[in-house]
Amino acid sequence: MTDANSGGGALEGIKVVEMGQLIAGPFCGQLLGDMGAEVVKIEPPETGDQMRHWGQGEKPSWWRVIARNKYSVAVDLRSPEGQALARDLIAEADILIENFRPGTLEKWNLDPAELRRANSGLIVVRVSGYGQTGPYSARAGFGGIGEAMGGWRGIVGYPDLPPARMGVSIGDTLAATYGCLGALAALHHRTQTGEGQIIDSALYEAVLQVMESTVSDYSVSGAKRKRTGSTLPGIAPSNVYPCRDGDYLIGANQDGVFARLAEAMGRPGLAHDPRYATHRARGAHQEELDALIADWTRTLTIAELEARLLDASVPAGRVYDAEDMLNDPHFAARGALVTVDDPELGAVTMQGVFPKLSATPGSVRRPAPLAVGQDTGEILRRWLGREE
């Protein structure tokens, strides 16, 4: 495996039991594992995590990303024997992650309150659609539902079309990231008190947290955000503009930056035109300004436009796909992509570990487990001192 990072990571020595399925719980486990924690993933013996089959292309590879740095242990959590084994493993853990419907752990005799009585330092990350309390808590919750309730779906897309999705499972990954953030804060608290705690991360609240001033704008002035396609109302110019051979993103909504853009366009007078001279004026004339810029960009190739904007120090960039990322020298120089040797798929290139820590960088230390339960024996020996 090739990785620009090395070393055990900031969370080396931290033991994590992951009981989640699909995206939210497992992505939280991926983040902790990337930072050095030892993550033991409990999977149903017969089927494993359904994420093993997700992804696109002839050979889906999403599992290789979300299950990296993890050990697979096969446990039937619906059986008394499996529940007893899970309790033994959790008694040795620092963090437990789960993203089942609220009440499921309790039904399986794995009530977090009971688990914490046996292991007072245990931190339990619970990711769910609506949270562990409240009138909706028992409802089944998927990422898309959280995105809709949290306000994201309602503002994505064009005003004359139904709400669109992001293109990735942003609700799940946001809730997982906040779950990870909570776990790290709880680890700090534990170093001071010796006590763990329970982290309640709801999908809709994770989405709500990144909705900027959506609620406050309405509470103050009754203003509701609407779907506006590729633009943000009042922020101009900031859009994707057509070139002769594709599209290019330009963000020049600050006064000084807009002046540099106008100079690059060969029209320095635009920066002094009352219609465009200030932030508010540009916002009020957004459509006509976008049309004016688009008329200019259509005369250039992406390479020609990029050269002019780089020379003028105007924030701008190409709209990348996976092929562009693989061929970009900046991605390579920073190790933004890493290549992991997979026993079944061969070399698999994927996103690296972020953010980058200067003293204790994370890394991809081991590939995703190929077989369900392949590490059961090793974990039982190392964690519990017993044979499988």
From TrEMBL:
Keywords: Transferase. It comes from the Bacteria. GO terms for molecular function: transferase activity. InterPro entries: CoA-transferase_III_domain, CoA-Trfase_fam_III, CoA-Trfase_III_dom3_sf, CoA-Trfase_III_dom_1_sf. This is CoA transferase. It comes from Sphingopyxis jiangsuensis.
